[in-house]
Structure formats: structure tokens, C-alpha cells
Amino acid sequence: MAPSEAQREDTALQHRLGVLTVSRVRRLSLLTDFDVWLFRSGRHFRLYEKLGSHLVKVDGVPGVYFAVWAPNAERVSVVGDFNNWNADEHVLVRREDGSGVWEGFVEHVEAGSLYKYRIVSHGGGYAAEKGDPFAFRWEEPPGNASIVWDLSYKWGDELWMKRRSEKNSLKAPISVYEVHLGSWGRGSSYVEVGEELARYVAEMGFTHVEFLPLMEHAFYGSWGYLTTGYFAPTNRYGAPQDFMRMVDVLHQSNVGVFLDWVPSHFPTDSFGLAYFDGSHLYEYDDQRMRVQPDWNSYVFDYRKGEVVSFLVSSALFWLDKYHVDGLRVDAVSSMLY
């Protein structure tokens, strides 16, 4: 469960009164100097292996490495169900290389743990609890906490993957069946849809399915086009491994998988990317460029290398971890004009 107002107020009161606990974060980094250079220059395409939450062991002790980009922050804490959402217990360490990354290792946090980042901006004028931009799983809406998760899965689509380049070749016949999973499955899980959809698509002679966005999104009425979790399939239909199983079954049925992907704009939910660290970090600072008027959403600031690294990493993440065959890029006009 996410923190109650009473829990938040109690922690805030303790902070004002100076009743602070000692942070129990251990120094740890998965980032090398080369990683940081790639990240800042817009050339890090596997950033999901470095930022976010990662289950690791340090000196034989299990736990989670947390890392988040928040250069305008004065203080960043990990809060979650493992510390009663106490912002003083696990304060992350700011890297000293000017990257704006805060990181650290928290012992004994397990897969399935709920968490957010408590971010206080420079000067203390802004404070918010934010979901992890690189979270592999989120709570099912209306919940909005991130979830520590491991993406291990035993794939059975080796034959498809070996032939993927020819199946998706410009010279290969392609007939695409577009699917809004929630409508087509009518409440079914990823696994249930995978089995039924594979049979139907193969019978109808389609070579590929294209799913309307299945990345986590808070507002169901957006059909997924207001993405909040760029590295997480929506939790509405099951766990990440259930999504993998759906892709696996489709591939084993000789059906390719495309995903709608939305790098053009994102919602302004207080727990998401908007005004992330008390500054317009992911979006344009200039309001004339920042607001997407059709959706009243924010447009990514493509001038920042870190934002480019975030988006390209998201695109490649779905091809890498979920064996997706291609992406349809939505609302390109918002990126150009």
C-alpha cells in the first residue's frame, strides 16, 4: 500500500523537528565514468541496466541498488513499504561527477517491494514522491508506486528469434492486426490473451499483431497513449513475465509482435516525470514548447542528452527484454513542430 496522509505528515513533522534517523544506505554504483559520459551525451542505449532498481548482493547480503537522475535535488530518499515510507531512513548519495545521479544500496529489500523517490529540490521549495522512471513494474492504477522486480524468464521462441530479421524484412510479406488488449481480451490476462490471439491471428492469415501502448499508464481512457512507465508493461493484465509469455506464445505460433511506443509526450501526473526534481527536467522549460495542446501533456526536451538516452533506452528495452519485433512511433508531429 502507498503511504497514507498521516504517515506523510508524521515523517514531515519529524524532519522539521530534527528527529531524524541515520540513513542506512550503503555506497554502491553500477555506473562507470564511461556510462556517465554516454548518458550525458545521449549515447547510452542500455540505461535500464544502470538506473532504476536492481536486485543485487553486496558482500553476500541481498538487497536493491537504487539510482535516479535528479540534478536539481538537494536530497533524494527511497521510501517504501520496507521502511514505512520514512524519508529519513534511506537517503541516497549524490555522485560527485556532476551527473545529477543519486544512488545507493539498501539491504534486504526484496522483489515485490513498493517504493518511490522522495525528492526535495534545492532550497527546499519543492518536495514530491515520484515513481521510478526506470521501474520494471508499477502498481496497478489507481496505485502509482513503483515495484522492485526481476525480469528473469525462460524463453521458448529461439526459432523465431533466429529468423526474426528475415520475418521482419522489408522484402517479407507483412499483414498487421492492430489490438487494444483491454478491449479485445475484455479483462483477460496477458497469458489468456496470448493463447487465444495467437490462434485467431494465425487463422486469419496475419503475420504480426500491433498492440496499442501496453506501457504502464494511469488513465485507462488514454488507451495507453499517456505513458507513465516507459520500462514497464501495465500491471492491469499481469506481471512482466506474463507479458513475456504472451509474446513467447505469439512467436511460437509464427506471429510477430509490434508495440505502439510514445516518445512524443507524457502526462503531468504529480507522481510521474513532470517537474521531476523541482525543475523541468524531462520536458522543455519554455512553456510554448513544453505543452502538447491536444492532450494537455508535456513534450520531452530532446535537446538534453540524458533525455535522449532515456528514450532510446526505452525503445531498445522492449526489443531486448521482451523480444518485441518493432515499434510504431506515435505522434511524431509533436516531436517535430
Average pLDDT for all residues: 92
Tell me the CATH architecture of the largest domain.
Alpha-Beta Barrel
Strand content bin: 15-25%
What form results from the Cα inertia axes? Answer: globular
Q: What is the number of domains?
A: 2
Number of helices: 10
**Rg on CA atoms, Å:** 20 Å
Can you say what the CATH homologous superfamily of the largest domain is?
Answer: Glycosidases
- CATH level 3 topology of the largest domain: TIM Barrel
Distance between the termini: 41 Å
Please provide the ordered H/E string of secondary-structure elements.
Answer: HHEEEEEEEEEHHEHHEEEHEEHEEHEH
GO cellular component, one term: cytosol
Protein name: 1,4-alpha-glucan branching enzyme
Keywords: Carbohydrate metabolism, Glycogen biosynthesis, Glycogen metabolism, Glycosyltransferase, Transferase
GO molecular function, one term: 1,4-alpha-glucan branching enzyme activity
Layout of SSEs?
Elements: H1 5-17, H2 33-41, E1 52-58, E2 61-69, E3 73-80, E4 93-94, E5 101-107, E6 114-121, E7 127-130, E8 137-138, E9 146-147, H3 158-162, H4 164-167, E10 176-179, H5 181-185, H6 190-204, E11 208-211, E12 215-216, E13 229-233, H7 240-252, E14 256-261, E15 265-266, H8 287-290, E16 291-292, E17 297-299, H9 305-321, E18 326-329, H10 333-336
Parallel strand pairs: 10-11, 11-14, 14-18
Antiparallel strand pairs: 1-2, 2-5, 3-6, 4-5, 6-7, 6-9, 8-9, 12-13, 15-17, 16-17
